[in-house]
Every structure is written in structure tokens, then in C-alpha cells.
From TrEMBL:
<dbReference type="InterPro" id="IPR032506">
    <property type="entry name" value="SGSH_C"/>
</dbReference>
<protein>
    <recommendedName>
        <fullName>N-sulphoglucosamine sulphohydrolase C-terminal domain-containing protein</fullName>
    </recommendedName>
</protein>
<dbReference type="Pfam" id="PF16347">
    <property type="entry name" value="SGSH_C"/>
</dbReference>
<feature type="domain" description="N-sulphoglucosamine sulphohydrolase C-terminal">
    <location>
        <begin position="4"/>
        <end position="108"/>
    </location>
</feature>
<dbReference type="InterPro" id="IPR017850">
    <property type="entry name" value="Alkaline_phosphatase_core_sf"/>
</dbReference>
Length: 136
């Protein structure tokens, strides 16, 4: 951590300093993962236009150099071949030729999601003394 302190367990990132010193580390991640909440709390858009509840207005994405998989809470998934379709116009999620890849990326997304769930209390445990900090 920059200030010399310990990085909180809730933070899952890595330092970019190795890129400056010796280039891309050999064990650098090969996928981009992110989540997005697309509800509009003021005007109820876009949930009204696609008839979703506010709680269903979320998505998670896994993307690598070849493919992008988008999983919605309450809408069909999207799957793109980024080499053949870099502008993401052709959704392949329903194409039987891509069924195995779609399944693999859905599993990767779920595994990542489970290992990066809300970590607000990850570093704590309940004890007779109250909440105590867990050692790694």
C-alpha cells in the first residue's frame, strides 16, 4: 500500500508499479471483470423501458482478449467474439456453436463473483470480546 499500511482485505487490486519497473508481470490477470448497476433512482429509467424492478437492474461482465460475456440479473446474456466482432454488434449467446464457450464464461463469471462478494466484514469474526480482526 502506498502509505506503508496494510491493504484492506476488501481491496482486490494489485500495484501497477511492476509495469513501470520491469513491464507486465508474468502472473498478471488475463481477464477484466466488472459489475454495473444501471437503475436510475430519480426517473425510473431504464428499468421502466425494459420492465425490470430496481433490484434486477444489474449486470456483471467478464472480458478477455477474445470474448466478452455479459450476465444480467433478469435479462438474457450477451456473448461477443471480440476478434470477429470488435464493435459487439452480433450477440452469440444463443448460437449453438458457442454454447460451450458461453457456459464456460458464465461459470468463470460466477466463480469470480463468489470469490469477490461483499467483503465488508470479511476481516472480522464474532468472539466473546465482540468483533475481532482475523489474521490472514
Amino acid at each position: 500500500m502506498a502509505g506503508g499500511g496494510e491493504t484492506p482485505r476488501a481491496c482486490d487490486g494489485r500495484s501497477l508499479l511492476p509495469f513501470l519497473a520491469e513491464g507486465k508481470p508474468s502472473d498478471w490477470r488475463t481477464e477484466l471483470h466488472y459489475e454495473f448497476d444501471f437503475r436510475d433512482v430519480f426517473y425510473d429509467q431504464p428499468q421502466n423501458s425494459v420492465q425490470l424492478s430496481q433490484d434486477d437492474c444489474s449486470l456483471c461482465v467478464i472480458e478477455d482478449e477474445n470474448y466478452k460475456y455479459v450476465h444480467f440479473a433478469a435479462l438474457p446474456p450477451l456473448f461477443f467474439d471480440l476478434k470477429a466482432d470488435p464493435h459487439e454488434f452480433n450477440n452469440l449467446a444463443g448460437d449453438p456453436a458457442y454454447a460451450a464457450l458461453v457456459r464456460d464464461y458464465a461459470q468463470k463469471a460466477l466463480s469470480w463473483r463468489l470469490s469477490h462478494a461483499d467483503r465488508t466484514l470479511t476481516h472480522y469474526r464474532s468472539s466473546p470480546q465482540g468483533l475481532t480482526t482475523r489474521n490472514h
